[in-house]
Amino acid sequence: MALNEAFVDADGFRIKYREGGQGTPLVYLHGAGGPRPNPSHELLARHHRVIAFEIPGFGDSPENTRTKTIGELASTITTAVASLGIDTFNLIGRSFGGTVALWMALQAPERVLAMVLEAPGAFRPEGMTPPSNHPLVVRLRGPARDPELERRMRALTTPTLVLFGTRDDVIPPSMGQIYKAALPNGHLVFVYDAGHGISTDRPEAYAEVVVDFLERHEAFVISRAHTVIHP
Amino acid sequence: MKVSFFETVRYRPPAPLPPDWPAASGAYDRDAGARAYEDMIARLRYLEDIGFDWVSVSEHHYSPRILTPSPILSAAYLAPHVKKMTIALLGPIVAHSNPVRLAEELAMLDTMTHGRLVVGLLRGTTNEALSYDLNPEESRERTDEGMELILKAWTEPQPFGWQGRHFQYRTVSIWPRPQQQPHPPTYALGTSREALEFAARHRLGCGVSYGPYDVMARATRHYRDECARHGWEPKPEQIVYRANMLVAGSDEEAHALLEQQPDRAPFSMRSGVADAIAKVDARNIAGQARAPVRMGALPTTFIGSPDTVVEQVRQCKEMVGCGVLDLSLHPPGLPDPEPLMRALDLFATKVLPRIREI
User: Fold this and answer.
1) Which domains does chain A carry?
2) Is the terminal CB of chain A with fewer CB neighbours within 10 Å at N or C?
3) Before B182, cis peptide (omega within 30)?
């Protein structure tokens, strides 16, 4: 299922997005590497109306020197979603986009039905320098540990799935413990043999757990697999 | 050098058994089985007295040769009788196990033994794929994934899910956790490139078995190279070499005893089945496509008088770099226990004290 390109205006930015599929809107935010072809989008679009934004300052958009904080960037994306006439939606953020997504949920929890954080970059080991030198990312990514962010996460009841690849060499998978400990309705899943780009490394495994979680929220822990070999 | 005794339970059949694997279950003798497990406890006390550092158990199915289909049960049975020795599970077959269950049971064992457990995680010999109807083509991948999941289950402090290729769990959070932290000394067993690289990547030990020194040295060299690539150096104790040893009063006597042993592997698969499995379950040694051990009886690596055997162990240490020898001093499955006891006496008095310093 192909995703079609379009634009929406928000906070003075002309924001490109790709959209495809039907159903509950699913907003996807890319990582610090910018928007890239992602086979998982088509898999997700079989179940959802996928809207993959190009964050202002990435891809073909002009350099973003206006946005001063990660919260401001989150607000811009939330405004863009509203401009598309969407009230409530599911949300996926990958790496840097995961930090943006987390702030979107904190700012407008009533609008985010459920959230998936794919190898999110909101927490990093002390002293670790993330590889991205994108000026917007460098300016907005914040400290390795933000106590204020953790404090606010403890009150966030949005169903949240945190994914880390077992071979992630950008953000250590052990960072998942922080999200799991802080988010009252958070779930941590390791995707075996995936690196930092889980959705591109193992798109089918990624899409299966994401679709299941977005459908069933915390009940996704109950297996629906059948083991009958011959009826 | 540390020394481990490979405990195979030593079932002594009252009558000759058919030679093929699987051995017909109807030929099992209950009294002989009960006696074998009782003897294992008596032998354990003796092994501890004469100074073995480890006693190892393994997992094998459908055969009287090694009567331990569940090494975890074997270890739990031995544990109350062990005062000093380390119990080595070398090892549970990961490919056909539930990795979370293994992680739980191994953590229980480590706790019950007050942290005197070492664990070798294993793909299993080719025939074992048939035991639980596992596609041999998948055994390598299932082993690698299962090993990684076990390590994660031991160390992850928060409940987590696992989105694997062969295993999927939405919730894992084991109790108890291992007594030893972050987990018991653990080995990825096998000579394959995949096992050696897994061990190096996860800072585990490696375990090789039965092949000649130069072949096993190729595997352990690859392991050490990979460890260096990952920024660490394994200790000698992180390389285990399992081997047969036949020690006698003289070299001539040892070789004469070897001549009396069967030259065919006991309870081996029929060739048609073995060949069919080999086509889908390719084995390698550090990337070189070949099986560690050819068909036939397992080789006897150390053979001769005590002097000769000590020198062979010295040479083995130099070439393979192992810090633990896991020894079988008499082929398992042979009916007469006396040769084993004689070998143990000789080993304890004339060999063990001298190889300690190697």
Assistant:
1) 4-219 (3.40.50.1820)
2) C
3) yes
At position B238, the amino acid (one-letter code) is: Q
Residues of B within 8 A of A177 (CB-CB) are: 156-158
Give CA separation, B320 vs A188, A193, B122, in Å: 42, 31, 20
* β-strand partners of A187: A161
Tell me whether B196 touches chain A (CB under 8 Å): no
Each residue's pLDDT tens digit, B133-188: 999 999 999 999 999 999 999 999 999 999 999 999 999 999 999 999 999 999 99
Euclidean distance between CA atoms B327 and B1, whole angstroms: 12
- Is the CB of A123 inside 8 Å of chain B's CB atoms? no
Closest residue in B to A208 (Cα) is B163
Q: Are B72 and B117 in contact (CB under 8 A)?
A: no
The verdict on pTM exceeding 0.90 is: yes
Quote the radius of gyration of chain A (alpha carbons, Å).
Answer: 17
Does residue B358 contact residue B1 with C-beta atoms inside 8 Å?
Answer: yes
Helix (H, G, I), strand (E, B) or coil at B119: strand
Closest in A177, A220, A221 to B158, CB measured: A177
Asked if B251 has any chain A CB less than 8 Å from its own CB, the reply is no
Helix ranges (DSSP H) in chain A: 39-44, 70-83, 96-107, 135-140, 147-153, 176-182, 198-201, 203-216
Contacts of A193 in chain B (CB under 8 A): 145, 164-165
Buried-exposed string A78-116: b where 16+ CB fall within 10 A, e elsewhere: bebbeebebeebbbbbbbbbbbbbbbbbbebeebbbbbb
B294 pLDDT above the threshold of 80: no
- Residue that is written with structure tokens 């907005």 in the block: A140
Interface pTM (ipTM) of the complex?
A: 0.94
